[in-house]
């Protein structure tokens, strides 16, 4: 598999990201959206795992190179990142990925975690024609009513019972989506992240959720 650090036009400037090609060199496109920690080794590993499943995976860097493992600093980085700029960067990532010769699909899938899970749903709403599969992990959008009305692609959500995100709100949102499935795990926040510092990684839940997500992306991001 081949990896590239890439730069692409976005929001009138340049954005950066991490692009992973599958061993075959071509495949359907998937965008990976970071947690509030930044473009960490965990997110880079997610792109490699998706490439191993046959996808061309792009992880945009929403923090411009900054990463942290300190919760207070992560909160500051997230707060200082304008949400509209991040949304435009992600829209630019969709255009960039679909323009790659290696990408065989006419649409993309999007998968994201925590902060990135909320952006998954926002991007699916902002680009309803290009995003055919959205997979949020333990993330919630800032404007659920608007998001629910604009998403056209399929959505598969992964949420935890021991988390700060109210499951009632999650169930209400998913109940308003036209093509959605919701999975809830007896686990804590960031249960998929095997390098998280809050001690909530759950190998069994992570394995099940990952298998579901990969199958869902294959189903809804056609070649």
TrEMBL record:
Source species, domain of life: Bacteria
Record Pfam families: DLH (PF01738)
Gene3D superfamilies: alpha/beta hydrolase
InterPro entries per the UniProt record, alphabetical: AB_hydrolase_fold, Dienelactn_hydro, Dienelactone_hydrolase-like
Residues in Dienelactone hydrolase domain copies: 17-220
Name this polypeptide is given: Carboxymethylenebutenolidase
Record organism: Actinoplanes ianthinogenes
């Amino acid at each position: 598999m081949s990896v590239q650090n890439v730069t692409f036009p976005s929001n009138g400037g340049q954005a950066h990201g991490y692009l992973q090609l599958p061993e075959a060199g071509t495949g359907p496109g998937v965008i990976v959206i970071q947690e509030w920690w930044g473009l960490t080794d965990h997110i880079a590993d997610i792109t490699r795992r998706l490439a191993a499943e046959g996808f061309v995976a792009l992880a945009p860097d929403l923090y411009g190179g900054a990463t942290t493992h300190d919760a207070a600093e992560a909160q500051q980085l997230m707060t200082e990142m304008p949400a509209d700029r991040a949304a435009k960067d992600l829209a630019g990532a969709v255009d960039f990925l679909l323009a790659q010769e290696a990408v065989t699909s006419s649409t993309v899938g999007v998968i994201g975690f925590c902060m990135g899970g909320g952006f998954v749903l926002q991007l699916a709403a902002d680009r309803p024609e290009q995003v055919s599969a959205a997979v949020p992990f333990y993330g919630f959008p800032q404007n659920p009513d608007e998001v629910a009305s604009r998403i056209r692609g399929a959505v598969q959500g992964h949420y935890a019972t021991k988390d700060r995100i109210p499951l009632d709100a999650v169930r209400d949102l998913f109940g308003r989506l036209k093509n959605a499935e919701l999975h809830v795990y007896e686990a804590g926040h960031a249960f998929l992240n095997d390098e998280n510092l809050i001690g909530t990684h759950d190998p069994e839940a992570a394995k099940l959720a990952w298998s579901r997500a990969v199958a869902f992306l294959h189903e809804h991001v056609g070649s």
